[in-house]
Amino acid sequence: MDQKKWQHLAEWPLLIAGVAFLVAFSVQVIGNLQEGQSVVIDVIIWGTWALFVIDYLVMLYLAERRWRWFARNLHHVVILGLPVLRPLRLLRLVTLLRSMQRFAGRALRGRILTYVLGAAVLLVYLGALSVLDEEQNGPAANIHSFGDAIWWAMTTITTVGYGDHFPVTLLGRVVGAVLMVGGVAVFGVITATLSSWLVELVEQGRVQTQADIDQVEDAIETAQNDEIARLGDRIDRLSEAVEALLARQTADGEATGARPAELS
């Protein structure tokens, strides 16, 4: 078994694990549950985290050059190792993004816009959950509900920034910075995709117009050639008729000249 085959086998299980983690994390954050208050939630969160650890270890084992693969994927070690601490739980959400990326990475060009919009919605939701997890119990915080967090995430990712809600903790501000950068990237991709689509439509219209023009020109040329051929046939027939008439007149003239000679 190689890495590609393992990725194919683990694709759906990791996606399901990521969704399960997101649901459990949402319940924990929105319900303002501390670790240990819900055994089921803790089991799901740590169980899904363990699945991603197993996936990482298998990928490392199957790598042809393990040390090179390890060096190129150090961020995965950070993602999997640091979330033991609750303040760094944001990094656990990257595992969900990783599984979603692995699942949707084969998207066709025509689905790019839909995928980017879906990624933007997911980014807003994850950012809202993360900042709410850090801010809702802070003494000086002004983000106390999921509605406040969603509103803040929307105004942040669109770079509007009303300022009525804002994070006061360090990690909350890090989440805000990620949303700002992610918003610029997402809307940049959307703009580029729409521009590419419009250019493609214009090019298709130009090609179709040129094809129509070529078709009309071919039809005109064919009609002209047919008309010229018909005129040529008429000219040939007229020429033959004229030659026949001249020959008849010549024959009649010769016959008329021969009669006086016979009479004399």
From TrEMBL:
Primary residence: membrane
Annotated GO CC locations: voltage-gated potassium channel complex
Any GO BP: action potential
Coiled coil listed as a keyword: yes
Domain of life where this protein originates: Bacteria
InterPro entries named in the record: K_chnl_dom (IPR013099), VG_K_chnl (IPR028325), Volt_channel_dom_sf (IPR027359)
Localization (cell): Membrane
Keywords: Coiled coil, Ion channel, Ion transport, Membrane, Transmembrane, Transmembrane helix, Transport
Potassium channel domain boundaries: 126-199
Coiled-coil region(s): 206-248
Residue intervals passing through the bilayer: 12-31, 43-62, 112-132, 174-199
Membrane topology recorded in Swiss-Prot or TrEMBL: Multi-pass membrane protein
Any GO molecular function: voltage-gated potassium channel activity
Statement: the UniProt record of this protein carries the keyword Transport: yes
Pfam families, per database record: Ion_trans_2
Protein name per UniProt: Two pore domain potassium channel family protein
